[in-house]
Each structure stands twice: as structure tokens, then as C-alpha cells.
Amino acid sequence: MSLAALQVPVQRNDAGLAAVMPKLSELFGDRFQTSQAIREQHGHTTSWLPNQLPDGVVFALSTDDVASAVRLCHEHRVPIIPFGTGSSLEGHVNAPGGGISVDLSQMNQIVAVHPEDLDCVVQAGVTRKQLNDYIRDTGLFFPIDPGADASLGGMAATRASGTNAVRYGTMKDAVLALTVVMPDGSVIKTGGRAKKSSAGYDLTRLMVGSEGTLGIITELTLKLFGVPEAVSAAICHYPDVASACNTVINAIQCGIPVARIELLDELQVKAVNSYSKLSLKEAPTLLVEFHGSESSVKEQVELFASISEEFGGSDFEWATRPEDRTRLWAARHDAYWAGQSLQPGKRSLSTDVCVPISRLADCVVATQEDIKTTGLTAPIVGHVGDGNFHVLVLADDTDADELERVEAFIERLNYRAIEMGGTCTGEHGVGQGKMKYMAREHGPALAVMASIKRSLDPLNIMNPGKIVRIDE
Amino acid sequence: MSLAALQVPVQRNDAGLAAVMPKLSELFGDRFQTSQAIREQHGHTTSWLPNQLPDGVVFALSTDDVASAVRLCHEHRVPIIPFGTGSSLEGHVNAPGGGISVDLSQMNQIVAVHPEDLDCVVQAGVTRKQLNDYIRDTGLFFPIDPGADASLGGMAATRASGTNAVRYGTMKDAVLALTVVMPDGSVIKTGGRAKKSSAGYDLTRLMVGSEGTLGIITELTLKLFGVPEAVSAAICHYPDVASACNTVINAIQCGIPVARIELLDELQVKAVNSYSKLSLKEAPTLLVEFHGSESSVKEQVELFASISEEFGGSDFEWATRPEDRTRLWAARHDAYWAGQSLQPGKRSLSTDVCVPISRLADCVVATQEDIKTTGLTAPIVGHVGDGNFHVLVLADDTDADELERVEAFIERLNYRAIEMGGTCTGEHGVGQGKMKYMAREHGPALAVMASIKRSLDPLNIMNPGKIVRIDE
């Protein structure tokens, strides 16, 4: 089996492309680019899937720009692939049938901040760090943190979450409303700024996680949260991953409102030590962070420490100074690059699954055993408070046998999570890489997804070949 | 204008009904009923809209029963109207084109409780009180509380929320996955038990709030929460509604994780006093409740009390004993009946809107003035922590002039909320009563809703004439 076999083919429309390209050029001038370098950059992602280049790239500055580009592509039946920062992992920005990449990174205006309503309105190209820098003085912050400094539009499109999700939820919870350019070029708003509504179908949640296959998100209304009065972070080591996972399971079951709780297995700690010049004990490790008032953080810490001790947690180290916390979380955020550096010449395949919290230890332990049996190098890191973990599998591109074992391992991992009542992706999204698991996970519900896709994008031009086949 | 003008007509299919009724009778025996009394009961709701009876009622015991009934109705193009407990307010269970009511109240099995994952699986007819009684010993509870002891299926279908939503969210947040019988009788599961997933379109959230127009919810996987260690409730009076609203706005903006915060205006307090035999001060009143650890509740109470004082709050009364709290909240829950008892012979029209929290005082004050100018009797009560409030308008059915003024008032109220960036319904849903506001609130997004409706229910048999016209 080859990686390319995962990529659902999409028919090219050369005549349509030949007609639409000069029109885009006329309309957008220098903001329509077709150079090989720019096309490569827009097909390229941190994905492990082979790159498939678009035929040209529109750099949009406004919702109107996006709508104009989409209308032209719609008229000529040419695929459109939205592009944020290119940090997605499952081949989301590939162009399997060619077409036009719509780059939203220059749509980076913060339109409005409403501290009195704990919300803000941003263009889709604003990144999470940019937003948090901008609102620093308001005492508010945007908590969703997938690691990469992704664009907020891209984060909504892939239903991103990350380290803070256990307390603050995912993009599904953080988005109040979206402006979306639909496949025919019409522009809709999916909601207002009220905190809740029962007025009709939840188009906001339908668009969040639709990965650009139903429309292009151009503007977002997002919830903000007060910066907590007190923050305390800690690192703790465990005799084995089962003990670390059981600590997490118990902490969640006790209702500790932990803000972040991250697992690094022994191999991941080794990688982090080497990459980030740290000297952490090379054992299964939890990084935890608590948010709240001084007294509530103190309570959380005490309760967590007692659970942790029960499962053999040792060498507890607290970091209440911001600089110490930053160092700790920087190491966590560099886990991807650290993992890759274990075997620098190799391709890294990052995959994630998510299971009910009670099955977390079972799933991680079975996966570690599988890695060992299969003879792979594959560190594990995870947002374990949600039952979500990632495996970074290293593979030699030139070694067909190893690639085959990797593929088979990833397949077993995904089916294992689904069998346990979980999902084939907790936060990376489907893209191209996870389409093969959709039927097993969703059964007849997949046909309902395809029906929605057909109804909103009958020409199959919006990011085709991702999530669901239109004929499914 | 008459109330019936709000009810979108649906074409009857007498031939289809004549064909399907004997088949339903054969299949369900005594569990298919066509008596006038039972049909009336199933068309009847707490709604203020004229009742429109179904032609027969199927009492379903299982998902298979529902699927069989739907398949027959699908084959004969006969409308299907799902029925839970009939406590919805906007005409959701009316049968404008006749058809078959599917009563789910006997699907009242609690299928599984997973305390270790903080979730449970229930059939759609289980009510929220039944669930909470059942799980009392686990130390967990289900927090969504719309007042009525509604069925959980119905609560999901209308995206219900209620008093606890400010801390625990709405049905949108509480539902992990659904089993749904689709309009062609196929059965889907919209998700697993993982706490989060990025695997495709969010069918769970699409079905939550779809009011039976896209399918019938037959089973739900729901999140549960730990019963808080400490609970404290209080009642406080204010010189005017603006001061009460400003207290709420400030408390929310300060990030106090208040569990419930309810406003009763002076007229509503008067009604509650008389109906529930209480002697509360007849002034704008807030009922608040805090959940957490002993020390965190103490902190919340202190911070709230200081904000309240700033806005002239007086006669603070704390209720930490469960029986005192129960009395207080029982009075709140009886607000609907209490309001109605102000003028017993009249029809009561309950309507709700929701605005961004910063506009809450503006909206409530303008609405009170409007009530006064229009010369209506209409107490206000609200889940104000979400910016959501209800107006119960009393109207004499035989007084055409009063009915017209009531209609015009409700219209102004809804448009006022929409103009303020809010929504025409925070929790009651669209049903028949709010369809006329959908175009103003959603603009071109309404056509997207209609497109989804057409794609999943091309025969327009699932609860037709609700939320969105299929030809919109």
C-alpha cells in the first residue's frame, strides 16, 4: 500500500481552468499567482501525504474577494481549496484535481473586540497568537491552543482544540458565528452575538469542522475568557503510561477543573530533552496546569497531587513563575519537531485518535505494545484530559517494508479507537488521511454527510476529495 | 392579523393517509390510536397557537418502532410529527397538514450510565427528572433544566437550555451523540462517546435544535456533571430592572462562574407571591445560585454581593439549606403558571428572545416601556446570565383589538432583539410561532437551511411547516 492510495482522485477540469485563470488574473492582478514556488508552498503542509499542487493562488483581502473568486470558479466548475497557514496535518490543502487555492492569510484584521460581551470579531487569517497579543490589555484571552500558530479560520474549519480544551472546550464551543462564502459565491452569516439561540439549524456548528468542503469561512465571532487570577503548572513522572493515564482518568472523574493535562511517553520525553535542551526524567510524564482564583488553584493542586501520589507519581515540580511555565509549555509545543528530530532523515506521520476517558489507559498501553511489536519509532503525546492522544510515527520513505508496517499500524490504531467507542480523529480532522475510516466510524451517517455535501456543493468544487466522497 | 396567520399551511395527503392508517393499525395494534381525545392531546401543547390535530398517534417503544412508522409514512408521503411531553411553546407538535404523531413518551428506558466517563445513554422519552432521580446515587447530575419536566429527546430537538445554562451550557453542549431515524426510515448514530471528535460534519449539532424537521431523535448520549460540593442560593431586590440587569452584566463580565441567575420583574414577583403563597418584596428581583467547593462558593458570593450593592441591591437573603433553595426555585419554575394566574380567563402567549449581555438592560427596559405604552399585562422573567428573557403576554381571545396589539408587541420585541445582535429565540425554538422572524434574523442563511431540509427530507414529511419552508 502506498500513501498516495489514501488520496481520493478528483477529476481535473482543464477547460474550466483555462477559462478561469485569465479572469482571476484580470480581477486580482498581482494577487493571483501561478509560480511553481507559490503553488508548491500552498500544496505543502506539515502533512505526511504526498503534495498535490493547485494551479494558482488567490491572495484574498476581503470576503468580497473570496466571493468573487468562488463565483468565477463556480461558473467554470473549478475546484477551490481554502488556505490559512498550512499547518494542518491530514492533507487538507492538497489539490487532488488541481484548482485554485484561496489564501486567507492577508485577511488578518481584528474587526471588533467587545470586552463587555466577552467576544470579538476577526477575519479568518488572524492567528491565535496575533489575537491574544492584540487583546492582552483587556484582561481577556482566547484559550484554544492547538500548538501551531494556526489561523483562526483554519482552526474553525478543522474543529481544532489542543491543550486547553479540557477546560475551555474546542472550536465547536468557541465560535459564536461565522461569515461563510458558499460554493455558489453567496455570503451567509451563521449567527449573531447572543450567547445562545434556538432559531433554526445550527449552521455555525455545521461549518465548524467542515474543512472547507461546504464553504469558505471568512470571518469569525469568537468567545473570549477572563485571564485567570492564578495559574499553576506542574510536571510529574510515573512508573508507566498506565499509571499516568489512570491519574488523568481519576482527576477528570473527580471533577477537577484542570485547564491542561498533557501526557508525554518516555520516548517523547527523550526527544524533548534532546531537542529543547532539557533534562527531564525519561519516564511517562504529565504536564498539568490549573486556572482559577488563588484559593481554587490551591484546592485543585492539592487534590491532583493526592491522586497522582496514589498512582506512583513522583518528582512533582511546580512552576508558578510565568517564565518557568513558558519553558515547560514551549517544550510541549515543540513535541512535534522534537519527535521528528529522533531520526532526522525520516518522514514523520502524525496521527491522532480520541477515546472515552475510561478507555484511555487501555488504548495508550495497547498502542505502545503495538509500536514495540511492529518495531517502530513512534513517540506518544496527548491532550489526555479529553481522551485524545497523538502518535508521531517515523518512517523511511525509501523503505517500502517499513512504510507498509507504518500504514498497517496507523490503521490498527484508528480501528482500536473506534472499537472503544472513540473516534479516528479528536482534533486533526479528516482531510485525505482519515477518509478511509469514516465508513467504519459513522456507518449510515456517512450517507447523510454526503447528502449535505451534495445539496450545498452540487458541483463538488469546494475542497473536493476531503472528508466524504460526494457519491458516498 | 390572527394567530392562525402564523401557521404555514401544509397540503394534506388524504389518499396517503387512507392508505397508511390501516397499515399502522395492523403493525401497532393498540399502540396506534385515532380517538379524538388522544389526537387532541397530541395537537395540544402549552403553545398559544391554535391546535392542529394529527390523524393518528403511534406509541413507539423502540427505535425500530419509530423506523417502521416512518418508513410507512415515507412510502405514502404522510407527515410525521414527533411528540415528547408536549411542553413546547411555539406550536412544535401541531399537525398543519394532518399526519401521524409519533409519541416517544413510552421510550423511557435509561440504557446505560457510565459514571467513569461522566456520560449516560437514554431513550428519547426519558424526562430530565427521571434521569436525575435514577442517577442520584452516582454523585452525578444532568444540569439542563428548562423548567418543565420535558423529555430529553424533546429538549435536544428544541435545543433547550434553562436556568443552569449560564454555567453548564445548553443541549447543544450536553449531547455527545444521538440515534436518529431519518425521513426515509434509515437509522443513524451521529457520534460515539469520545469527548471530542473532528471526524466529519457535526450531525449531532445539526440534529439538536432541528425540531423533528430532519429526523426523529430516539436515543441520546448525554454528558453528566458531578454534584457540586457546595451550593448557595440568594434572592436580592433592586430599585429598577436596569439595576438588576447591570448587576448581571457585571457579574458575567467579572467571570463569576454563577450557576443560575434569574430575573423576575416587579409584575412577575407579584404573580409569584400570589400563586406560590410567598411574600417577596414586589420589586425587580434576582435569584442567583452558586456551585463549587465551599471556598469557591464563598468567593463567588462575596464578589457577587459587592457588585450587587453597587447597583442598589437590597434585602439580600441567602439560602444554603436545600429546602429553602427548593422553595425559591419552585417559585421560579412556577413563573409561567403564576403569570397566567394574573388574569385567569385570558390566553397566555409566552415568547422569548436573547441578546448579547451588554444589551440586556437596554432590551429589557425598552420592552417594559413598550408593554406599558401598549397597555398590556406581561410579566418578564429570564435566564439573564445568557442575555435570555421571556415575556408572558396575557390576551383576551375574544378581544380582536387586544390580540392585534399583542401580536404587534411580540413582533417589535423580536425585531428589537435581532437589531441588537441577538436572536428571536434563545431557547423556545422556532416551531410555527417564530418562522416569520427567520428571514430577518438569518438573511441568505435561511436558504441554506432550506437546502439542507430539501436534501434530507425531499418529500417534506418530517414535521412540515416548522422552522423553514422547504421552498425558501
From TrEMBL, chains A, B:
Gene Ontology molecular function, alphabetical = D-lactate dehydrogenase (cytochrome) activity; D-lactate dehydrogenase (NAD+) activity; FAD binding
Is Nucleotide-binding among the key words of this record?
no
Q: Which residues form the FAD-binding PCMH-type domain?
A: 50-227
Q: Name what cofactor the protein needs.
A: FAD
Documented EC number(s): 1.1.2.4
InterPro entries per the record?
FAD-bd_oxidored_4_C (IPR004113), FAD-bd_PCMH (IPR016166), FAD-bd_PCMH-like_sf (IPR036318), FAD-bd_PCMH_sub2 (IPR016169), FAD-linked_Oxase-like_C (IPR016164), Oxid_FAD_bind_N (IPR006094), Vanillyl_alc_oxidase_C-sub2 (IPR016171)
- SUPFAM superfamilies the UniProt entry points to: FAD-binding/transporter-associated domain-like, FAD-linked oxidases, C-terminal domain
Enzymatic class: oxidoreductase
| Gene3D superfamilies tied to this protein | 3.30.465.10, 3.30.70.2740, Vanillyl-alcohol Oxidase, Chain A, domain 4
UniProt keywords (A-Z) are: FAD, Flavoprotein, Oxidoreductase, Transit peptide
Q: Mind listing the GO biological process terms from this record?
A: lactate catabolic process
Q: Keyword Hydrolase: yes or no?
A: no
Give the protein family: Belongs to the FAD-binding oxidoreductase/transferase type 4 family.
- Please give the name of this protein: D-lactate dehydrogenase (cytochrome)
Give the organism, scientific name: Pseudovibrio exalbescens
